[in-house]
Design goal:
With 189 residues, this protein is an alpha/beta fold. It has a single domain, classed as Nucleotidyltransferase, domain 5 (2-Layer Sandwich). The protein has five helices and five strands. Strands 3-2-1-4-5 form a five-stranded mixed sheet, with helices on both faces. A hairpin with a 4-residue loop joins strand 1 and strand 2. Its cofactor is Mg(2+).
Length: 189
């Protein structure tokens, strides 16, 4: 599975592309960080991020896009900018029919390091080791984008199986309720 990992942000937006193989084999294909000038207005900064993400999608043709889910930050402005950047990337993927998955930072850290509270240095070290890189990806946004893609490669099969099991359970429950309703009708005079 070819996955585009995105560590969204306005100042720095990490983009990565990995290829997942059998088991937990993952290969890095590309990684970069898109930077936007802080003096630009918000709309134009988002446009720069979206344009870069669209070029990546058109060039690399990912089968899925994994974006960091923003759920809480101390700085509301930073959280809003991060969410907006992630939103324009999700929109670009949706326009291309590419499924988008959102993963929380703790999910990514747990998948890559085994510890949902790992620090950036631990994440970077494990990404470097998992991908067999000679040099650690820098800045941290690049390593985080790779970690998101790795996380999705490893979690997607499990999430898919869980979704199918939930669908099957819902269908079985629907059939059971229909059968009960039919039995109740048959018993009534």
């Amino acid at each position: 599975m070819r996955v585009m990992g995105v560590d969204p942000g306005l100042t720095r937006c990490g983009l990565s592309m990995v290829q997942g193989g059998r088991g937990r084999t993952v290969t890095a294909l590309d990684v970069d960080v898109v930077r936007t000038p802080p003096e630009l207005d918000l709309a134009n900064r988002l446009l720069l991020v979206a344009d870069a993400a669209e070029r990546w999608m058109d060039t690399h043709r990912p089968e899925a896009v994994a974006v960091e889910r923003v759920f809480a930050q101390h700085n509301v402005r930073t959280a809003m900018a991060t969410a907006q950047a992630g939103g324009v990337i999700a929109l670009a993927a949706a326009r291309r029919g590419i499924p988008v998955a959102f993963h929380t930072p703790s999910e990514v850290k747990a998948a890559v390091t085994g510890n949902g509270a790992a620090d950036k240095a631990q994440v970077t070290a494990m990404v470097t080791r998992i991908l067999g890189l000679q040099v650690a990806p820098k800045p941290a946004d690049a390593a985080d984008a790779l970690a998101l893609a790795i996380c999705h490669c490893w979690r997607a099969p499990l999430l898919d199986r869980m979704a199918k099991a939930e669908q099957a359970a819902a269908e079985a429950q629907r059939k059971y309720k229909a059968r009960l309703a039919e039995q109740r009708k048959a018993v009534r005079p």
